[in-house]
Every structure is written in structure tokens, then in C-alpha cells.
Amino acid sequence: MGRTDLLADAAWRLPLKPLVFQILLTLADGERHGWSLVREVQQRGGFGRIMPGNFYRTLRATLSSGLIAESPDRPAPEEDDERRRYFRLTPLGEAVAAAEARRLEAAVIEARAKRLLAKRG
Amino acid sequence: MTTRFYRLLLWCFPPSIRRGFGDDMVRLFDAQLRDARIQGDSPLRIYVEAIGDAVMHGTAERVGAGRERARRLIRAVGRWRSWMQAIRQDLNYALRLLGRQPGVTVLAVATLALGIGANTAIFSAVEALLLRPLPYHDSERLMMLYEKRAAEGVLDNPVSPADFLDWSRLNGSFAPIAAFATETVDLTGAGEPVRLSAEKVSPRFFEVLGVQPMLGRTFRPEEALSGQHRVAILANDLWRKRFDADAAVVGRRIMLDATPFEVIGVLPPTFEFPGTSLSLWIPLALEGGPQPPSRTNHYLTVVARLKDGVTLARARSDMDRVGSQLQQQYPEANRNHGASVSPLSIELHAPVRESLIGLLAAVAFVLLIACVNVANLLLAKAASRRREMAVRAALGASRLRLAGQALTESLLLGVCGGGAGLLVAGWGIALLRRIAPEGVPVLGVDRVGLNPQVLAFTLVLSIAVGLLFGLLPAWQLASQDVSESLKDGGRSPAGVRRRLRRTLVVSEIALASLLLVGAGLTMRSFQSLLRADTGFHPHGLLTAFISLPDGRYPDDARRVAAYNEIERRFAALPGVRSVGATSHLPLSGQDSRSGIGVEGRAATPDTPTRAHPRAVTLDYFKTMGITLLAGRNFAASDNPDAPFVAVINQTMARRYWPGGSPLGKRVRLGGNMVRWREVIGIVSDVKHWGFDRPVNPEIYLPQRQMVWDGLTFVLATDRDPALLTAAVREQLRSVDPDLPLSRVATMESVAARSVAARRAAMLLLGIFGGLALVLAAAGIYGVMAQLVALRSAEIGIRMTLGARPAAVMRLVLREGLVQAIIGLSIGIAGGVALMRGFRAVLYQVSPADPVTLAAVSATLIATTLLACALPARRAMRVDPIVALRH
Q1: If DSSP states are collapsed to H, E and C, what string results for B201-217?
Q2: pLDDT at A74
Q3: pTM, to two decimals
Q4: B505-547, pLDDT tens digit by residue?
Q5: CA nearest B790: which of B567, B467, B502, B451?
Q6: For B357-408, what is each residue's pLDDT tens digit?
Q7: Which helix (H) or strand (E) holds B483?
């Protein structure tokens, strides 16, 4: 898929559910296995409690929509646990996350222009 | 506890989620509980939330998964439907096309039907006789054991009783092991006296084969002791025919050779063993007799079942160990003797394997020729459809779709040909049954037929054939250049087309000549077999076997008297020229062999002296037409009180007295205790073991000095010998009404039976050769007719320019002839090379037999010329104006 195609494909997927965006953001740093993924998302906060059904259903949907993929690379054997599944961002996921970030950025700029943010600050 | 709780909740989710993330989800739930406790929240809330979360997301996920599945199913059904629709369209179209040219279609289907039918018929025999497992439990573990005499190149010698008993004791590879030997007995007291074959088996024989009796029991171990062996088991057919399927037969007494035996069992109808459908089974009593079991008398066949986990290789090395142990123990009797192990299936299939495989190869060639023919027909059709295909391609049909369309047509033809082939096969199987030689000891002859396996073979073959002859035209159609084809109005580049056709004709002629070389060589070798000098005159001879039971003829004097009386009465019959009798009739399969002592020649275990003894009456040589080469014939004076004498055959004279005369020299049969016999005459060699088998030393003894318990009488007459049968029976009854007359046959039919298998194979090969020739002729005709049609414009020009009709005809004939010669050279070279591999099948004919090769070449060239004649005539009559206008 060329870059233009990616962008076009990314556009109709917006807006993202917040949890999906958080998953993509976390994976932007690099591969994670499922457990460390959910812990990092939770630590970033803003969701209240993440319940297993909700999180893993979202993870499954994100996987099958092609935004993330299971990674064939495993860490060194002494650190590895074969039950763990590792995930990484796909180029499409990266494009979608960027598009979503730009969408949010635009919203923030607009909010700032309308002094919604300034009032508080 | 928390883990178990969440594991239960996991059941809300579809299996894909449970499997993929279950452990992580449990772990996350645990973590949430822990966090809640640290933050001072109520764990109960977490439980409630988790339940809500699992039910909601689990249900949603299940619904989603279901929907996804449904979507996928719908897509698959849609694909399947469009696919089926395409196939239906192709089929409809193909049917219409085939219907449009019914002549071509019928020709193609008939050609294929012949090829596929012949293959199906032969395959049904291969399936029933070679491929099907033997009808015994776990039959691949069954083995046959023979004595191995590696130094003499003999691997399948019968086994001596003492060796068999030692093998059973010493081997570690076989669970039960059993021996058997066939002999004949007279059954009296159950209808007309009859001579039956009796299988003497050691008690565990039925256990080896895994057979349970239908009625009664099998043998007990103690019944293998001499004196306790008077029990018998009946084969099912015998029980039906002779005992009216009477269930009360168990416990009944029957008389075998005038000795009472008790019937203890009846075998089930499903039990088969070669040549025993009308047999009695009696115990083989090897022990408990006055003499210890013999180590030098070899007459047993041994079957055994491999123990679980023992491989054939291990069994072989185990028996090698047993063999060398016995060699050390009995250096005299067992010097150089070992044991060989061979799977029972291989041994039982051996009589027919080679000819069936040869026939299968022959019908495969016939089918290939049929395929070439049909490919040719389709190519011609394809040529006329180039434009249509080009138009369809131009309108957007993909090449795959076009090729698929063409292949559908050929597959349809193939399947139609297969269907019609079944009719041909049914007829072919009936023919096979009629010409199948009788008495070939192989299992499964009754099972040859159109069963599901054979039908599956036919189906697969039809499809394969459809693909084979369809690929070429399909490829041609699909790979043509669309714009070229549209521009030139659908005419093809003639050069390519002609080259392809010529290749097909050449391959057809090559295949046909290859098959004809095979068939021709087989026929020639059969011919020279029948012309071979047998050493006797089989014409006008009637033979009949008579044996005297011990019970009523206990001593030699009484036997000799009875034989003399029978001979006298037979000789007195009107039309009988002379009468003789022998213990072992040539070509009948009867034989005996014995070690002999030759005076002045020390036999060592490495150079044994052996001969095949036969007891004969005074007029036997004269009746059979066996020539006395030197010395004298037996005389009435050669009686038990006179000096013992013998007549030997030429082979024996040459082998044991090379360069000298055996006349007056002395020999003896068996050990040192036996009296010497003087050699008084030499007779010509007789092909005792078969037309194509080497002759071994034979030693003839006067019947009075060596009384046998059964003799085959030979009557020479000038009339049809078969007409004597009734009179012979009547004369015998007047001597002794309880004596059965068996194996009544003319000597010619005995000889014919010994070559029946060869004759059947030759006949079938001849039929297939003829079929190949007819198909090839039809194919050559078809191609030449098309080539002439393609060249009609060229021929028209030639004729306008002044070519004579005769020259035009020569042109066409020459083209055919060139192809015939190329095809012939390839086919004959291939045929000769192939038959070199089958040299064992040929008898006194070289694979490059000039007569056969000349005949095959002449036949094929004549066929080619004939097939070209009609198209050539047509070419001669081409009207230049008409030809040029098109």
C-alpha cells in the first residue's frame, strides 16, 4: 500500500475509540506483550478501571482491523515466556494513530482559540 | 478462588478470545482486585463490574463472531454458486457442441470406450488377483518357508519332516508354524467312489491362517502322532457336493483309501487355499511312527505367522541362524542347506504376476493410442473453432475460462467414454473368464468383476484420460493470438498445425508397433514352444489315473496282478493299439525325485547325484512314442525275482557317464541298503516338466520291480481318444467296482493345460495388438484426411501448374509413408528394448526376431498405406478451381 492509500484508508477509521488510541500510542514506543500493554495504558490513566472483557475485546478488534499485528519476533529466551503474545504497530496503525492525533490536535487548537483551555489555565 | 471465579466468567466469551487471551484476562482481573484493595475500594464492586463486563463484551463478541462466520459462509456459497454456474454453462455448451457433430462424438466415445474398457477389464483381474489382501486374518504377517540350497541356486526346495520339526523348535520369529503336503486319496462310502486331493497339514495349520471351522473343530496336537491321525476336516464345497451340506456329518465315519477316518469339522465357505476347494484336510503325522522323521526326504511346504513386532528381515536372519545350527548338527544331511522366508502373498501371486503386469502394460498402450486418436479429433475441431474462441477472448473471456471450457468438453468425452467403457469391460471380463486357464493355483479368480474399487479406477482413468487428450487442444485454443486469429478469419498457421498432427501420427504408429512387437514375439515364442520336440507323440492318446488303496491291495503281488488285469482289459478294447502305464505322466505336474548312487562315482554334497524315478509298464515307451536309443526295453522277465534293471533318459546318460556308455553300469535309488540296478537301455528325453523347462535325469523302472500305489494308464488309439472314456470306465468297474477313475483326459489336453496360462496371455496380447492396429489405422486415416483438406489449396495450385493426379496421390502416400517409417523405427526400437526386459517370457525367440519385426513393419506400412489411400484419392480429385476459390 502506498502512502496516499494508507492515508485514505486511515481517514475513514476516525474518530478512534479512546482505548484503541491508547493502545496504538503505547505500541508507538515499540513492541509490548498483552500484559505490559494493558498495564501501561492503565498507568497513563483517564479511563477509570479497565475491565478484562472490554480491554481484550478491543485488542482483538484492533488486531483484526489490521491496526496492530502479532509480532513474530520474540525477546531473548531467558526473558521470554512462551504463553505471551507480542504486539506491534502496523504501518496502517501508525497512519491511523497519526491521523487521530492530528484530529485531536485540531480540536485542542480550536478549544484554545475559543479560550476553553485558557479559562482554566 | 478469584482465578476460578474469573475462569468461569470466561465462558461468556467465544473460544477464540478464551484461548488467545484467557490467561491475561484472569491476570488483569486479579490485578484490578489487588489495586481496588490498595485503594480501599470494595472488592465486591470489582466482582459485580467484572460480571457486567464479561456478560456485555462476551455476548457482543459472540454475536460478532457469529456474524462474521455467517458472512464468510454466504461469501463461500456465493463463490460456489458462481463456480457451479460456470461449470453448468461449460457443461451445457460442451453437450451442445458434442451433439452438433454426433459422428465425431460417437467415434471419440467409442475409441475411448475400447481403451478404457480393456484397461478396466485387465485392472479388475489385477485388483482381484494381485492387489487384494489374501483372505486371511492379518495376512501380511503370513510367510512361506523353504529349504535354501544357495550352492545349487535353489531357494524354494521342499522341507524334510525332521528339518520342519527342528525349525518349529528352534525359531524365535514365528508364532505358529505349520507344514503341509498334498496327496490323493480315494473316498468311498459317500456316493460313487472318488479320488480327492487330501491336504495333510500339521495341527496348527488353521491357527497359522487364522481360520475357525464352521462346524466341529480343527486338529489337536496329539492327532499329529501316527496312529491317532484318523480324523478329517472337509472343505466347504466338498461338504456341499458330497455330503449334501449335512450338519450331522461331524462324527461320521468315512473311508479314505479303505481306512476309516472320523469327520471332525467342516471349513467355512469363506476359507480359500489354492486348489483345495474340493479337498479333505487330514493331520500330517510326522512323529510316533516306526521310523524317526526323515531328514533326507523333502516334500513339505511350510507356512508360518510372524510374531508381533518381528520384521521379515529379522525372521530371515533368525532362520539363517537356525539353518547353520542344523548344518553343524547334521553335517551329512544338511550340508549347505539353509532356510528361506518369503511372504505368502508373493508366493501365491507368483503364477500370474508377470503375465498380468505385461497385459496391463499392453492395455495401457492401447489406451494411449485411443487418447492420441481423440486428441487428434479434438485438434481438428479446435481448428474450426479458433475464430469463435478469438471472438470470445476479444469480448473479455479469460484464457483460463476458455481453456476450462475446452477441458470440460474433453472431460465430458472422457467420462462418456468411461461409461461406455464399462460395457466393454463387462464383456471383456466375461471373455477373460472364458479364456482364463483352469487350475492356475491362485486365489481370487471368482472375484474378478466390476466392484467399487474397479469402478473407482475407471472413473479416475476416465478423468485422467479426459485431461490427457484435452490438454493439447485446450492449450492451443487458449494460447492463440487473438488479433491474428480474428484477422486471418480463423485459419491457423498451417505449419504449426501440421507439425503437431504429424507428431501425433508418428507417436501413434510408434505405440502400435511397440505393442505389436510385444504381441508378435509372444506369439512366435508360443509357436516355437508348441513345435518344440516333447520327446513323445501326444496325438491319439487317452490318459486316466487309477490307484489301488492299501486296504484292499495290501501287497505288491496283488497290486501287480490288478494292474496287469486292467492293462489287459484296456488293450482288448476295440480300436486300442497299445496300452502302457506310468507312475508320473509327463506335463501333468506329477513328479518325484530321489538321490541315487552311481557305481564308481562318489556323490558329494556339493555334486549330488539325483534322478527322477518313474515306474512304467512294458509297453509304456511304445504307447507314448518315446524312442529307445540304445540297449533294450523292459521285458516280461524283468520281475521281482530277476536282477533289477533300469532304463534312463539321455540327459541322465550324459550327466553321469560323460563320454562313456552307461549300458551295463549299475545305479541304485536311495541308500546303501538298496539293491543295485543294471542300466539296460537309454530312451530319448521327454519334456516332463513343461515345454519350456529343462530336462532332468529320469530313471525308468519296470513296474513289477518298483510297485507304485497309483498309475496313469495311457491308451493309444487311431480314433478320437475321448470316445474311449465310457468303455474304459466300464472295464475298470468290471475289475473292481470300488476303484475310482480320475483325471481322464487326452494327452493333447494334458499338454494344452500345461501351456494354458501362456496361451491365454498370448491370446489377450493378440487381441490388444489387433485393437491397437485398428485404432492406429483409424487415427492415421483421420489425420491424413485433415492434412489433405488443409493442403487442398496447395494441391489445387500444383494441379493448375500441371501436376498429374498420380503425382498428387504419390505426394500424399509419401507423406504417410515417411511418418510410418519414423514411427516404426521408434516403436520397434522401443519394443525390442522392452522385450529384452521380458526375455524370460520368450522361448527360443530373440527379442530382435527378424520374422516378427518384418511382419510388424509390413503390417503397419500396409495399414498406413490403406489408411492414406482414401485421403489420397480425394486429393487426386481436387478440383483446382474450387480449391483455389476457397
Answers
A1: ECCCHHHHHCCCCCEEC
A2: 65
A3: 0.70
A4: 888 889 889 888 988 988 888 888 888 888 999 899 999 998 8
A5: B502
A6: 888 888 998 998 898 888 888 877 777 777 777 787 778 777 777 788 888 8
A7: helix B482-487
> Which member of A49, A52, A85 has the closest CB to residue B25?
A52
Give the single-character DSSP code of B190. S
Cα-Cα-Cα-Cα dihedral sign, residues B747, B748, B751, B756: negative
Q: Which amino acid is at B154?
A: V
**What string of DSSP letters covers chain A?**
--HHHHHHHHHTTPSPPHHHHHHHHHHTTS-EEHHHHHHHHHHH-SSSPPPHHHHHHHHHHHHHTTSEEE-S----GGG--TT--EEEE-HHHHHHHHHHHHHHHHHHHHHHHTTHHHHH-
Nearest CA among B566, B866, B608, B576 for reference residue B729 = B566
Q: Which residues of A touch B29 (CB under 8 A)?
A: 51-52
- Which H/E stretch holds residue B32? helix B15-39
What are the residues of chain A with a beta carbon less than 8 Å away from any beta carbon of chain B? 34-35, 38-39, 49-57, 59-60, 83, 85
Residue B162 grid cell: 525332521
- Compute the average pLDDT of residues B569-587: 93
Residue type, B657: W
| B284 DSSP 8-state letter | -
**Cα separation values, B289 from B229, B588, B667, Å:** 11, 31, 29
- Of the CA atoms within 13 Å of residue B49, those in its CB half-sphere come to 16
Q: Is the pLDDT of residue B153 over 80?
A: no
Which grid coordinates are listed for B669?
A: 535309488
- Are B490 and B387 in contact by the 8 Å Cβ rule? The answer is yes
Which residue shows C-alpha cell 455467517? B70
Contact B274, B295 (CB under 8 A): no
- The residues near B290 (Cβ < 8 Å, ≥ 6 apart) are none
Q: Distance between CA A1 and CA A3 in Å, rounded?
A: 7
Contact of B16 with chain A, judged by CB distance below 8 Å, is answered with yes
List of E strands, B617-674: 628-631, 645-649, 666-669
Which tens digits make up the pLDDT trace of B268-297? Answer: 988 888 777 778 899 988 887 777 888 877
With residue B340 as reference, give the H or E element that holds it.
strand B338-343
CA–CA min distance B386, chain A (Å): 41
pLDDT bucket at B490, cuts 50 / 70 / 90: very low
